[in-house]
Amino acid sequence: MIRAMFTxxxxxxxxxTAIDTIAHNLANVNTTGFKKSRAxxxxxxxxxxxxxGGQTAAGNTxxxxxxxxxxxxxxSVAKLYTPGALIQTGNELDLAIEGDGFFQVxxxxxxxxxxxxxxxRRSEDGTILTxxxxxxxxxxxxxxxxxxxxxxxxxxVSVRExxxxxxxxxxxxxxxxxxxxxxxxxSMGRNLLLETDASGDPITGxxxxxxxxxxxxxxxxxxxxxxxxxxxxxxxxxRAYEANSQVIRTSDEMLQIxxxxxx
Amino acid sequence: xxxAVLGGRTVIAGLYAAANGMLAVEERQAxxxxxxxxxxxxxxxxxxxxxxxxxxxxxxxxRRPERLDRVVAPGGGIRTIETFSxxxxxxxxxxxxxxxxxxxxxxxxxxxGDDGVRFTRNGRFxxxxxxxxxxxxxxxxxxxxxxxxxxxxxxxxxxxxxxxVNGEVRxxxxxxxxxxxxxxxxxxxTLFRAPQDAIDAAQLxxxxxxxxxxxxxxxxxxxxxxxxxxxxxxxYAANQxxxxxxxxxxxxxxxxxxxx
Lengths: 263, 260
Fold this sequence. Notes:
The complex is a heterodimer of chains A (about 260) and B (about 260).
Chain A: H1 2-27, E1 37-43, E2 46-50, E3 66-69, E4 72-79, E5 86-88, E6 95-98, E7 102-106, E8 112-115, E9 120-122, E10 128-130, E11 135-137, E12 148-151, E13 156-160, E14 168-172, E15 175-177, E16 203-205, E17 214-217, E18 219-221, H2 227-259
Helix pairs in contact in A: 1-2
Chain B: H1 2-37, E1 47-53, E2 78-85, E3 92-94, E4 101-104, E5 108-113, E6 116-120, E7 125-128, E8 131-134, E9 139-140, E10 155-157, E11 162-165, E12 168-172, E13 175-177, E14 185-188, E15 191-193, H2 196-201, E16 203-204, E17 209-212, E18 214-216, H3 222-257
């Protein structure tokens, strides 16, 4: 009985985490370059009251033992790097990645962070920055008098300056991909990700090679959160939460019955 | 004289039978609670507590051996004899995540952790050091019992279990089928352990197909579990009522029969 109560409590805690994750996903349904998270569950350890394969008093082999589980645990909350919808903005520094790659940006402390959010801006001296003001790596500077910026699918940035009809190259955007993007550390928020031991080392490449993705100028990648999917997940989690609370209630009633044996 | 003794024994037997009944229901409730807690665990297989009566356990009377032959003799309540795993397939949902793999059919993924070879139906995988691993970090084995190198590109599974990276075959998932999956024991973390003879007898999957970018949900059915729980609750209450009435009967026997 007591066992059942604690088992159900692990179930409620797990479903609460599922709801927390869904809430975060739904809050970011319109966040550029956002990747949804998913809570992954596993069952907890089992208590073996009678092992399978043992002998009964009558000398028979026990075909299937008695194993009673202790509920559920959170195995991981991992991001799913499926592509989001591309939205046309027409802004010449809005860049989307059509593939698995990430942009590299330099944090104020000098370390490199990674992002799928390609809504770039120019600083007053023409350096390409993220909307948070972090510098794109490798650094590309747009001449301040440039009339037009063109970014090719392969990431080559060219500008047209006054008095000419031709584009001149000012730099090439580099992308990176990870052996295991689900291992990236998303804890700093702000659409930025950090590499970890689990993600593996970044593999640098030019856009278009080995699935790293092409660059789409004038587009932004929207969040990959699917509202309907999340709402269904929410309904399922809520009902599972309720079911677990019913287990606690039933177990409580049973304890009450047990206490009333001698009435 | 003899009927009175027998009567008394029957009364006490009823008391133990009802107490055993309550203990057995508690075990049932623990199994139900675990099923409900894992209603959202991928690859989880629900359990059923199988319970059976104690037959004639309280009739071992050396003076009257013929009683042992009475099949219909009231027993000593019930007890759990096994927790039976239902290996029926859960509902498969597509997730569009390249590292989610569901199995349709009776097979299991073969994986290797620190404690040796284990089996699972939970196909949520990850990559570490370019190798395919489970979320708990165990290595996913190929059909040759080797780790699968999946580094350097876009990973893809096909229905036969072949793993491709950028279109190039890197190996085939080691999916095995057992003659009798009930020989598997549970380890938690959605892992099953198999006895060595079952591992030796297991064969590579023929009736199992791989569903890429999908996940097999828990096969727990909440409505059935709720009904099982309601039945358990009422059985518990009924057993308690038996204890109370046995108590009353015994009380009358002791206090009133003696008073005559």
